[in-house]
Write a structure and sequence with these properties.
four-stranded antiparallel β-sheet; Immunoglobulin-like; 156 residues; mainly beta; 8 strands
């Protein structure tokens, strides 16, 4: 192989190597027309251990349009020391609740709650809540809140 051919091949490989990461998938959310004001994230996410599971409470800020649905996502880690440092958590949607549904509790004005009953002792749970309006436009996820359930007696 001539030197010129070798340099062209090297340049092509280098060019492909540099452009592939730039074109990676980066979908963060569905597109929203620019004339629509975005919804504000939910705030004051609080977790409380209850006899039947974990009670998740959140507050809705003043919004440009009313929120009509809430999506709750959860990540689960085995125990406090078992996490993967630097790894993104695997989130699972655990609920998609419309205002007025029995599972969605209105605690007080603009404060809602949901009881997650599918939890196990000795695990760390992390939650985020997303609010959506009637047309399906959703807020950014809330700041995460985490709670570690104590291990059952005799399980260690």
């Amino acid at each position: 192989m001539r030197k010129r051919d070798w340099l062209l091949t090297l340049a092509a490989i280098l060019g492909l190597t540099l452009t592939i990461p730039v074109h990676g998938c980066g979908l963060k959310a569905d597109p929203v027309p620019s004339r629509i004001q975005p919804l504000k994230s939910l705030i004051d996410i609080r977790l409380q251990q209850e006899a039947g599971g974990i009670l998740i409470r959140w507050r809705m800020q003043e919004q440009p349009r009313p929120m009509t649905r809430f999506k709750l996502v959860r990540s689960e880690i085995g125990t406090d020391g078992e996490s993967c440092p630097g790894c993104p958590p695997d989130e699972t949607r655990i609920a998609d609740l419309a205002i007025g549904e029995a599972k969605l509790v209105m605690v007080e004005d603009n404060v809602f709650g949901y009881l997650d009953t599918n939890v196990k002792p000795g695990r760390l749970y992390r939650y985020r809540v997303i609010g959506c309006d009637r047309s399906g436009v959703c807020s950014e996820p809330s700041a995460p809140a985490a709670l570690s359930l104590p291990a059952a007696a005799g399980s260690r």
